[in-house]
Amino acid sequence: MIELFKHIIHLDFEWLFANYGTLVYFILFLVIFIETGLVLMPFLPGDSLLFTAGLFARLGYLEMGLLLTLLFVAAVLGDNTNYWIGRKLGLKMVHIKMNGKNIVKQEYLDKTHSFYETYGPKAIIMARFVPIVRTFAPFVAGIAEMRYRKFVAFDILGGAIWIFSLTFAGYFLGKIEWIGKNIDKVAIGIIFISILPIVIGFIKERKNKGIV
Length: 212
Hints:
Blueprint: H1 2-9, H2 13-20, H3 24-37, H4 47-58, H5 64-94, E1 97-98, E2 101-102, H6 106-119, H7 123-126, H8 133-143, H9 148-173, H10 177-181, H11 183-208
Antiparallel strand pairs: 1-2
């Protein structure tokens, strides 16, 4: 299990196909569901995994229609699970500690609250493209008891845009020879771009506090 987790984090699709074959579809579904559905797992790859999955679909390892369907369902189910966890258990979970530390980091909640204050309900769509915020956005929406019909409408739209845009980006760019031969470098680049908003936000926050 640890070995599998390590290869998922490193986006080692060739190892996954060699060891799990068509079960890779289920693994990808599970990763997206967990990353969007459990506030304890905000560090799993999301953007980079979608892009790389699209690239491997281009190379013939995955069937694009089935892949898109499974990933979209996983993203929507994950967010909805997270919403109801937040709505029913959110405030209790915030205060649960493990080894003296909160299992749900207050700084992540504060960052997500700030995101909502800036962008309103459309934050549910925009959060899809921001790591960590993506995981906490539905959880915070549940805690705030956002009207479910409004939440699910924005969530379905955001999930479709996120899954289709990044997976198709990998699929169409996969025909570029350099990208096909340098998947590891491309994955690192996507991870860097994904965390860039967080880094910029961190720097701005420190500047506002006069630390930088």
